[in-house]
Each structure stands twice: as C-alpha cells, then as structure tokens.
C-alpha cells in the first residue's frame, strides 16, 4: 500500500486569518506611509513569510529603512493588534481532518507564519494534536513560493514527495507545493483574495467538497503515480 501524506497550510485553510493579516499589513503601510492598495497585499504577499515579504515591499516601495527595522515594526504592531481581531476556523476543516485520519493519511502543517502564531492558532481551535510535524516560516530560509518548507516535511517523514497532497489557498503556496513535486489541492477561499490557483491539480470551493469519495480519488491518484 502506498503511504499517504497530507499537508495543510494554516492561514486561509485551517483558520480564516487572511483578512486579519491583510488588514494589519495595510495599517502598517499607513503608519509607514507606503502607498500600496490592499490588492497588492492580497495578490502579491499572501503566503509569504515575514522576511522575504518585507524584502519585496522594501524593493517595490523604495524604502530607506532596513528589512530588520520594517520587520520589527510589523511584528510589534501585529502582536499589539491581532488578539483584538476575531479569527475563526475555516468551516468544515475539522471534518476534513477526521476523514483524512480515517482513511489512513499522516497529517502535517506547513505555514509561512511564525511558530508563535501557529502555536497560538492551532491551540485556539484545538487541532495541534492532529499533526505529526509542524513546519513554520521560522524553519526555512526560503519562503513560499520556494518549495523548501514542503521538502523539509518530506525529509522529516523520509518519504517521496509524490506521495503527498497539499491543501493551499494562495498562488505562492500552490507554486511551492508543485515545485516540491507534490500534488496540490487549491482552496478558493473568498477571504484570501483573488488568488491564481490554476497550477493546482484539483480545485475546491468549500471544505464540504472533500468527501469520502474525493479522498478515495486522492489515494487512487497516488497509487497510479507510484505504479501500483
């Protein structure tokens, strides 16, 4: 039997936190007098971890402050604000987690967010115990859309990348998963902005789309790719 692995992104997949992230970054832009619209945040920055994100913003906005200064300002402002903003789990995601477990999948989480934030959110919605391994933006040098975070999960399992399915809601996340040699399900979460998920193998619009039959199809695709 082909081993079965499934990796969840966090923001926009497990928790509906993308609007919160977008709003806080937009407020930071206003504080720093960066004249970029929210669409720039949604379409360009979603799925990126903090350092490469601020490297890109610094370059695009021609800022004189260092990346370290910008990052520190963002983090300080973020942790002052984020607990005031209500963030809920994505509807139906716990059912998906349980169904995947029932079908024998090993589950992992790979998010560009910081370890601190991942711990906060996964404990808040009581899901941290489902995952064998959690990789954060703190664990990698190159953020999504680079594949490093996913290849590290595969290395942790000592497993072939082609035996993995990834659930992502952002263009950067889908690109990272595909570059890692993994299959990817694109989740068209309206709260994640207008993301180009065209490179994903499959597309869903709701967690309810991931039925038992849908999961059986994932297993068949894996077995076919493994020649079984």
TrEMBL record:
Signal peptide: none annotated. NCBIfam families: HAD-SF-IA-v3. PANTHER family: 2-DEOXYGLUCOSE-6-PHOSPHATE PHOSPHATASE 2, PSEUDOURIDINE-5'-PHOSPHATASE. This is HAD hydrolase, family IA, variant 3. GO terms for molecular function: hydrolase activity. Gene3D superfamilies: HAD superfamily/HAD-like, Putative phosphatase, domain 2. Keywords: Hydrolase.
């Amino acid at each position: 039997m082909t081993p079965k692995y499934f990796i969840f992104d966090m923001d926009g997949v497990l928790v509906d936190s993308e609007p919160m992230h977008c709003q806080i970054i937009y407020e930071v832009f206003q504080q720093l007098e960066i004249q970029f619209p929210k669409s720039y945040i949604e379409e360009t920055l979603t799925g990126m971890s903090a350092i490469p994100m601020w490297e890109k913003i610094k370059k695009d906005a021609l800022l004189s402050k260092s990346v370290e200064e910008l990052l520190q300002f963002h983090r300080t402002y973020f942790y002052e604000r984020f607990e005031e903003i209500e963030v809920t789990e994505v509807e139906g995601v716990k059912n998906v987690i349980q169904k995947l477990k029932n079908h024998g999948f090993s589950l992992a989480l790979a998010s560009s967010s910081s370890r601190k934030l991942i711990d906060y959110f996964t404990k808040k919605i009581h899901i941290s115990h489902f995952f064998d391994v959690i990789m954060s933006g703190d664990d990698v040098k190159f953020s999504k859309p680079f594949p490093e975070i996913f290849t590290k999960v595969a290395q942790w399992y000592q497993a072939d990348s082609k035996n993995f399915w990834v659930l992502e809601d952002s263009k950067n996340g889908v690109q990272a998963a595909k570059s890692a040699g993994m299959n990817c399900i694109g989740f068209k979460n309206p709260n994640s902005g207008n993301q180009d998920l065209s490179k994903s193998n499959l597309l869903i619009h709701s967690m309810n789309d991931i039925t038992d039959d849908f999961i059986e199809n994932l297993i068949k695709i894996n077995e076919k790719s493994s020649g079984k």
